[in-house]
Design goal:
five-stranded antiparallel beta sheet; 187 residues; Immunoglobulin-like; four-stranded mixed beta sheet
Length: 187
């Protein structure tokens, strides 16, 4: 009887180790993750609206048809970026992911408290190299630190009813994602 109990306990432990190892390793071995799926259809450092999902096809799995979506595939190797997203009356959200699909920051229109969600995206090293400006406070400037040089920014605006979908699509299409140098040069 003890032999069977030990055998059962050993099997459960081995099964648990295999299960945990699989869960940890599977995302790293997936070849068709979100970044790989969106790479051919999204240029770097540009907001690209995604087509609405249909019952037959969607750009990404589990897309909600009540939301207009856009993606900015970013690359911080050339410097920090500025993101500007107009806020809709229903709901607008912005989520940040590394190139390995790890979510590291999200903000919505309620948390932003403004008509436009504006923030600076940079690596920790780029943030450390920024000059300290005494007249700029943390409330004036939202800085998001990316753990990787490349990744995705998902922008979503809700259309509470189907007739409002064109307004939600125009809101995500009006979002801007560009290098900070380009913003300074255009002023």
């Amino acid at each position: 009887m003890i032999r069977w109990a030990l055998l059962l306990l050993g099997g459960c432990l081995l099964g648990g180790v295999v299960h945990i190892a699989t869960i940890i390793m599977l995302p790293r071995t997936a070849t068709r993750d979100a970044y790989a799926r969106l790479e051919p259809i999204t240029p770097v450092n540009t907001v690209t609206p995604l087509p609405p999902p249909t019952s037959d096809a969607a750009a990404m799995p589990y897309m909600d048809p009540a939301f207009a979506s856009a993606i900015c595939r970013y690359d911080l190797s050339q410097g920090p970026m500025k993101l500007s997203v107009p806020v809709r009356t229903a709901y607008t959200s912005v989520s940040f992911y590394t190139n390995r699909d790890v979510a590291y920051y999200a903000i919505n229109d309620r948390a932003a408290g403004r008509r436009v969600i504006e923030l600076d995206l940079m690596t920790i090293e780029q943030h450390n190299q920024m000059p300290e400006e005494e007249d700029v406070t943390a409330a004036d400037r939202l800085i998001v630190e990316s753990p990787s040089l490349t990744g995705l920014i998902a922008i979503r605006a809700m259309a509470p009813e189907p007739g409002l979908m064109p307004q939600a699509q125009s809101a995500v299409a009006a979002a801007q994602c560009r290098r900070s140098d380009d913003v300074k040069g255009s002023r």
